[in-house]
Design goal:
The structure holds two protein chains of two kinds. Chain A is α/β, with parallel strands linked by helices. Chain A is 39% helix and 15% strand. Chain A folds into two domains: 169 residues, 3-Layer(aba) Sandwich (D-Maltodextrin-Binding Protein, domain 2), CATH 3.40.190.10; 96 residues, 3-Layer(aba) Sandwich (D-Maltodextrin-Binding Protein, domain 2), CATH 3.40.190. In chain A, helix 3 packs across helix 9 and helix 3 packs antiparallel against helix 12. Classes of the chains: A alpha/beta, B mainly alpha. Chains A and B meet through helix 1, strand 2, strand 4, helix 7 and helix 8 of A and helix 4, helix 12, helix 13, helix 17 and helix 22 of B.
Chain lengths: 358, 600
């Protein structure tokens, strides 16, 4: 054989090897083909054996990763709740930490089944992006944080920030809200945009800005941590924007939507009856028929029709807890309390309300 | 006044204060450097910094969410790498020796530096209070300073005296290295560090109590260091054996592959399949290859060699499209590749024996990779990527360099090839990859690549990122290597042709060694760039070393409360990156020195 023939054969075979190794990897990495159109996400999730939940890379109180790599927080607990409903085991969940820029792409590409990621329910996100929103788990609203030294009090309004430097995240609705609001109130502000909220706080502490603005929950949490309750003021009392945060999933999949929605509702109903993970076993289901139906009476007809097991919501309460437990566990230490706020029970004048389980 | 002191005065006069401008420059520079150090020290010592946010999150930094019950795999990987390192240090044991006074002079310099920094460190540091007003507080009081000053001054004196005793005991430099490495291991058992402890109501206790380092940290490190020492001694016993050295070199190349496929995945050991399918396939293919190598020069065999090769290629081609075990397919492909290469390499008896060994090792590696890589039982992690933190950074850096370097060599050779189609393809790949920013490639991997792949094929995000990284740094390596190739005089090629070397021999024995030797500095700087650039993956949602410190730790609230402590972590991250890149560049300088680079 001539040298040239050898060389060309060598190259040919290298290409072949490259193809073959690729093929080998393909066969390894290949996943079951999904046809999103006629298979519900619920079937996909059950077949896969675990839930893929999209959470934030880091939001104090909502999604945190501890030093041993475990996850915790308000949003994370709802991921656990959905897993408990589907599998009867809260730990069957895989988290994906998403930046705000990639959350909807990730959801649309099927990389996550549901988003619990501080996502505000807005008209355009609901209608244009191919998403649907579930029941709001946390009613938030944009507020501002300033210093007493600058003459800011709790009754201050947007008109009082005239001439101050305001730090906020670039390219978010937060930024739009504050420019819009300040313009309407006739205040001229100097806007300083940063990439992350933590950076804004650093600048605030360093005195590079006089006001920071973002969702009220983050402000309260951060104020509690910095132990400056006497110096830092959060205002105005009624937020300048509505930020209903809740689960997000792909459109046109009502079977999966029902599972997510009713998991959230189950935690709320249990809270209404005062059923917690501690006393769920001793509930008298004959006296409280709604709870009985929710926890699997009549062979759990309501649940089995959804494609879940009869005791799906019993598992949610048992393993994760009711709404109040989830809330107080994660948010009370940060200084966020339900009493008198929008996140109180509807019977106490709040907005947390669930349709009846019948 | 002794002679040495006079010498140093003279040196200073000559180099630092030779003229008025140079004196001004010296003073100004020292002023800035000192100011920078004092600022840094004040920042680190200020009371509002919580350095436990770094220390407490080491596990998160290193492996992120890797399950604790599988940590043994991580320790095995680290241990394996260090055992290999020990063996190699022993095998290639340095012949240089340092005398005891040189060792003491090193210690003297360290303690002098410590003394110097203790003296110049600022007493006060500035703390920004909650109103944004900068306040000064005493962070390094006189008592603490004295407590540090006295021992360091004593150490300086002791080492100065010891150094000037001119003790003439000589130590081997490699032995000394092992001794230096033992210092942190011993310290690990002695020192106590502040640790986060919770009281009965789950609140953090302040100030953090001092506790010895956890057994789960120091025991594995001690065992690993023991093994390191043992293999160092084994290695130095066999330092004259060429074969062991060669085996060691090959093992280094194989190590990342084994760690990747074996340690990071839970292998599914299915004994019947291994015994009934994998081992027969391995033995069969191995024998065919070995026989081919043995009888290649036999005149009768040579006559029918092209027919044999044709049949083999045909069988492999068919095998690719029918459903047989994947191991058989890939083994056949490897066999074809080997059979084609064989006539081009040396055919002496010794060469053949080595070739059979190489063949066996490659086939075995391939089998392990295919079987280990295809097992379904992965380690269960609570997040999407099993790699996170430093393990991801390390994976991207090592695997990026590991795959892209050979790719770069092939692309560079291809670009210089006489065959137009090869040249065109290689030039195309290089120019296409280099002309697009790395971030764009990352977005391509994250968003677009799924569209390009055939239906039903889906790689993990990390694998996709590894693929684009390999091509991207491969293209840069290729251009560097092409530069090296061009630096070789034409006479070298002609001389190789004149003594009748085959093109393969010419490339592997004459051209590549000289080309690579000439470009070691550029290669190292490429590797360092790849290591640092790996932090860019954060924009497509992979959590690397930097992101852990910048985003995740700053949100940990209950009960540790590290919210707002991201600046300490950024400083630590910078320091950590610096250690690695600095070590790498120092090692490469040593290699350059050994190869006599720049001396010819």
């Amino acid at each position: 054989m001539s040298k040239k023939a050898i060389v060309s054969l060598l190259i040919l075979s290298m290409i072949a090897v490259a193809c073959a190794t690729e093929e080998a990897v393909e066969e390894v990495a290949v996943e079951e083909e999904h046809d999103h159109s006629d298979e519900s996400t619920l079937d996909e999730v059950i077949e896969r054996g675990f839930l893929k939940c999209g959470i934030s890379t880091g939001a104090t109180g909502f999604s945190e990763q501890a030093d041993d790599g475990s996850f915790g927080g308000f949003d994370v607990d709802f991921c656990y709740a959905v897993a408990a409903a589907v599998f009867g085991d809260y730990s069957k969940v895989e988290f994906k930490q998403l930046t705000s820029a990639e959350r909807f792409t990730s959801l649309a590409a099927g990389e996550v089944d549901v988003l619990f990621r501080n996502t505000t329910w807005t008209q355009s996100r609901d209608t244009e992006l191919g998403n649907d929103f579930g029941p709001t788990t946390y009613f938030d609203g944009q507020q501002l944080l300033g210093r007493k030294a600058d003459g800011i009090t709790e009754s201050s309004t947007l008109a009082d920030i005239d001439g101050l430097r305001v730090c906020t995240n670039a390219g978010t609705t937060t930024e739009k809200n504050i420019t819009e609001g300040a313009g309407l109130a006739g205040a001229t502000i100097e806007l300083v945009t940063v990439e992350a909220f933590a950076e804004a706080v650093d600048k605030f502490i360093a005195g590079e800005c006089d006001i920071i603005t973002t969702d009220g929950s983050a402000l309260v949490g951060r104020r509690a941590v910095n132990d400056a309750l006497n110096d830092w003021v959060i205002f105005p009392t009624s937020p300048i924007s509505k930020e209903p945060l809740g689960p997000t999933y792909r459109s046109n999949d009502s079977e999966w939507a029902d599972v997510v929605n009713w998991t959230v509702y189950a935690t709320i109903i249990a809270d209404e009856y005062g059923v917690t993970s501690a006393n769920v076993d001793s509930v008298d289901t004959d006296a409280l028929p709604e709870l009985g139906r929710l926890f699997g009476a009549n062979d759990g007809e309501l649940q089995t029709k959804m494609g879940l097991s009869a005791d799906a919501f019993y598992n949610v309460i048992k393993q994760v807890g009711n709404y109040d437990q989830i809330y107080s566990r994660n948010l009370n230490p940060l200084g966020l309390f339900r009493e008198g706020g929008a996140n109180d029970r509807w019977t106490n004048g709040g907005l947390i309300y669930a349709p009846p389980a019948r | 006044m002794n002679l040495e002191f006079k010498k140093s005065i003279a040196w200073m006069r000559e180099n630092l204060f030779s003229s008025i401008p140079s004196s001004i420059l010296t003073v100004a520079t020292s002023f800035f450097v000192l100011g920078f150090f004092r600022g840094l020290f004040g920042f680190a010592m200020a009371s509002d910094k919580d350095w436990l946010s770094v220390l407490n999150n080491m596990q998160l930094y290193m492996v992120q969410a890797y399950p604790e019950e599988d940590f043994i795999r991580v320790w095995i990987s680290v241990g394996l790498a260090l055992v290999f390192a020990g063996m190699s240090i022993g095998l290639w044991k340095s012949t240089e020796e340092s005398s005891l006074s040189e060792v003491f002079s090193k210690f003297l310099r360290v303690s002098l530096a410590f003394l110097f920094f203790t003296v110049v460190a600022p007493t006060f540091s500035s703390v920004t209070d909650n109103d944004g007003i900068i306040q000064t507080e005493e962070s390094f009081p006189m008592e603490t300073r004295l407590q540090l000053l006295i021992p360091s001054a004593i150490l300086v004196v002791v080492f100065f005296v010891l150094k000037n005793l001119k003790l003439n005991y000589k130590f081997n430099k490699s032995d000394l290295l092992c001794f230096y490495l033992a210092i942190p291991i011993v310290l690990m058992w002695i020192i106590k560090l502040p640790t986060i402890q919770l009281d009965s109501s789950n609140q953090r206790i302040f100030p953090d109590p001092l506790m010895p380092i956890a057994d789960t940290t120091k025991t594995p490190w001690t065992i690993i260091f023991g093994l390191f020492l043992a293999f160092y001694f084994i290695g130095s016993r066999f330092k004259d054996s060429k074969n062991i050295k060669r085996t060691m070199s090959i093992s280094w190349v194989l190590l990342p592959l084994f760690i990747f496929s074996w340690i990071f995945k839970k292998p599914e050991i299915d004994l019947p399949t291994i015994l009934g399918q994998d081992i027969p396939i391995f033995i069969g293919i191995f024998l065919i290859g070995a026989l081919t190598i043995t009888f290649i020069n036999n005149p009768v065999v040579e006559k029918y060699f092209s027919i044999y090769l044709g049949v083999l290629i045909a069988i492999t081609g068919i095998a690719l499209f029918i459903s047989i075990p994947i191991l058989l397919k890939s083994a056949l492909l490897l066999l074809v590749l080997f059979t084609i290469v064989i006539p081009a390499v040396s055919s002496s008896t010794k060469g053949k024996r080595n070739l059979i060994i190489v063949w066996g090792v490659s086939l075995f590696t391939l089998s392990v990779l295919i079987r280990g890589g295809s097992s379904d039982t992965q380690i269960i992690v609570q997040q999407q990527s099993i790699f996170g933190g430093f393990s991801l950074t390390w994976l991207l850096a090592i695997f990026g360099t590991y795959v892209s370097f050979p790719l770069g060599v092939l692309l560079a050779l291809g670009r210089n090839s006489k065959l137009p189609i090869v040249r065109l393809v290689c030039t195309g790949i290089i120019e296409l990859t280099r002309s697009v920013p790395y971030i764009t490639w990352l977005f391509f991997a994250s968003v677009t690549m799924a569209v390009f792949l055939p239906e039903g094929v889906n790689f993990e995000l990390v694998v996709r990122v590894l693929m684009v990284t390999a091509f991207f740094s491969g293209a840069y390596f290729a251009e560097n290597i092409r530069g090296g190739l061009q630096s070789i005089p034409k006479g070298q090629y002609e001389a190789a042709d004149a003594i009748g070397m085959s093109p393969f021999q010419k490339t592997s024995l004459i051209v590549m060694p000289q080309a690579l030797r000439a470009i070691i500095p550029t290669l190292v700087s490429s590797a360092i760039t790849a290591f640092k650039d790996s932090s860019l993956v954060t924009i497509i949602g992979l959590i690397d070393f930097l992101t852990i410190g910048k985003v995740i730790i700053g949100t940990q609230s209950i009960p540790v409360n590290f919210v707002g402590h991201d600046r300490e972590n950024l400083l630590f991250i910078a320091f950590f990156y610096w250690i690695f890149t600095f070590t790498l560049s120092r090692r490469s300088m040593k290699v350059e020195k050994r190869l006599g680079l720049g001396e010819r």
